[in-house]
Amino acid sequence: MIVKTQHNGREYSIDLDSGIDLSIPNRFNGNLPVFYGASSPSIKPVEFGEFIGDVNQGGSCNVKIASVNIHCTGTHSECIGHINDSGIFITDVCPKGFIDTCLVTIKPIPAIDSTEKYHSPFGSHDLVITQDLISEKLNGNFKEGLVIRTIPNSENKKFLNYDKNPAPFLTHDAVDFILEMGVQHLLVDLPSIDKADDGGQLGNHHRFFKKGKTISELLYIPESVKDGDGLLQIQIPNWGLDAAPSRPIFYSL
Ligand SMILES: [Zn+2]
């Protein structure tokens, strides 16, 4: 289906079949990223009386029970309910429709080379995404949604163990800046916008959720998608939780 839309005073046609999936596929085969020692998502068939929910074991249909650590094993979107007792669900704040979005690629720099701030001391191997890097790339072109792809963009992001391979994170300045620029939905191909061992403070999450609505983490952004403006739809199940597995679909303009 082709839809026409106005964007920055220009008219665009979007083929709704042309969306690029920015999520990491979960095939329940153990081949997924892992963070904080999480067990990989698993499934087992329902058993009820004589019935087994697995056609390969003689059942009449497949009925599987899934167990998923949403935050630590794959693409997910979260809201302020992740860090407080507000009881706000991801479904309360994640838009059903399209989000005006910009996608940028950023090469994180050694934290010790940056003068920007963070609430936990920088380690000698830490890499950060700074306000400077974001500002340079976007040059004032901010949208409601911001997708950050980090370099190197190797395929191993789909199954990296982040406990053994600590990921870059954002500085406070970077978070404050994108909020000032009006970003409401932040999406990253990192396991967190915070340093993994920040003492459980989640400082950047607290900063972002003062004004921002959703953070999506552990994306994989294929090389085939170019940097630039687009429309984004964050697909989530209708679950009453702080976070849900998600499937961000990006339509380049
Ligand atoms: Zn999370």
Jot down its keywords.
single chain; 253 residues; mainly beta; Glucose Oxidase, domain 1; 9-stranded mixed β-sheet; 3-stranded mixed β-sheet; binds zinc ion
Percent helix among the residues? 10-25%
The CATH topology: Glucose Oxidase, domain 1
Looking across the biggest beta sheet, what order are the strands in? Answer: 3-18-16-9-12-14-15-8-17
Mean pLDDT: 96
Structure description:
By secondary structure, the chain is mainly beta. The chain has four helices and 18 strands. It has helices spanning 90-93, 131-138, 172-180, 203-208; strands at residues 2-7, 10-15, 20-21, 42-45, 47-48, 51-52, 64-67, 76-78, 99-106, 109-110, 127-129, 145-150, 169-170, 185-188, 214-217, 228-235, 243-245, 247-252. The strands form five sheets. Strands 3-18-16-9-12-14-15-8-17 form a nine-stranded mixed beta sheet. The longest helix has 9 residues, at 172-180. The mean pLDDT is 96. The structure holds zinc ion. Zinc ion binds at residues 71, 76, 78, 217, 243.
